[in-house]
Amino acid sequence: MTRNTSTQLCLLFAMLLSAAVGLLIPAGEAAAHASLVRVEPADGAVIGAAPPTISLTFSEPTSPLVLKLIRPDGRTTSLDRFALRDTTLEIEAPTDLGNGTHILSWRIVSEDGHPVGGSAVFSIGGPSRGSAPVASEAIDWPVRIAIWTGKVLMYASLFLGIGGIFFIRWVGDCSPVARRAALWAIAGALLATPLTVGLQGLDALGTPLTALGNPITWKTGFSTSYGTTVLLAVASGGLALVAILTRGWAGKILSLLAFLGVGMALAASGHASAAQPQWLTRPAVFLHATGIAFWAGSLIPLVAAFAARKPDAVLALRRFANAIPFAVLPLVAAGMVLALIQLGGPAALWSTAYGQVLMAKLLLLVILFCLAAYNRFWLTKPTEQGDPVATRQLVRSIRIELAIVVTIFAVAAFWRFTPPPRALAEAAAAPASIHIHTAKAMADLTVAPGRVGPSLASIVIMTGDFGPLAAKDVTLILANPSAGI
Hints:
The protein is α+β, with helices and mostly antiparallel strands. Helix content is 54%, strand content 16%. It has helices at 2-24, 141-170, 176-205, 215-223, 226-244, 248-267, 278-307, 313-343, 348-351, 353-384, 388-412, 421-429, and strands at 36-40, 45-47, 53-58, 63-70, 76-78, 82-85, 88-92, 100-109, 115-124, 432-437, 441-448, 456-463. A 5-stranded mixed β-sheet has the order 2-9-8-4-5. Helix 2 runs parallel beside helix 5, helix 6 crosses helix 7 and helix 7 runs antiparallel to helix 8 (313-343). The termini are far apart. Mean pLDDT is 84; it is low at 18-32.
């Protein structure tokens, strides 16, 4: 019986590997966090007349959420007439724009489901006298805390609930306490996961918690790729709920489908799944998520079985010990692949917020792996032989494992607010450009890449009516008086 069950689990993890490759390869191309490549009129440009349109070109297709124009007198105008042309967003400018400095404030959602915002300044006729209008966006801490809390609850309820039901159906149904805990976790998943859609909408629109009841908030949240993640997660929770109430092979199959759904849900959106190359990152996220679900989901059933002194507890422990390497090895390999892709270089570990979150997670993982190794190589065999001291130590150790796993979920939830270094590097590599327009002459200046370090400046000069200008001499003067340059 034990050998047959262990063989079934090994075959099951082989199926997971096949699913990761076969189901996720067809995913379309995408990039994490869209970055602004070009804006017209260019940021800082001085133009002679009001433009008929304002265009934003990004590094990937996007969906506009909020578009506003702040006028020289501080008034704000919403821009609701626009057209999407591949990666370019063409916005119809108001017809009554006067002279002075204007600020275009934009907020879009990128293909990885995360909102991205920014602003661009241009002047008509000349810069405004006195202080220019200001576009600023303060962090809405109540919304940010709510998003983080929702993420932690979603991770914990999905992994512990669906993973727990998978363990009960495939490894050992040893304790009514474990079944009740799994049911409570699934109930939490079915409540917390949909709520995160509304929180996603608040963040995307830049609105406060009081706007959570607005239909546009939920519509915006569902319109991002995160909406797919939530639909898959809720469907998986429903399957797991039916699986725990279903006996025999039907319950096993339903729990397996729910288990696969967790991996598919997390691979549908987010930093890692949207990174290139898609054929590698999406399967990696899938394997990472299913590995976590198996490991985390086993902890409560094991603790409950030994705490209740169930006779089948030792059998479940033996099956788990035989199967866990087939979950942990893909989990670790996938995590390393994703970290290498997202970091871009070792310096990002300590120089970026994303890397600092990763280091905190790695520290917790080292502690977790040491504890798991101690359990497997020092406590498992004596426990199987009925040693009461080893059994008490194992139960205590598994409880500590559970606490560390939940802490890892809390740390990982901070990634929601930290763009990966790779995306930051892509944005920094984008060229910086400016258009200078006067009645007699115009100049288009492009500096590539638009970041600190060696760059190439390209200047195209024209007459005021876009004709060729045979200039005898061109001088480029760069200055930043506020920085003493």
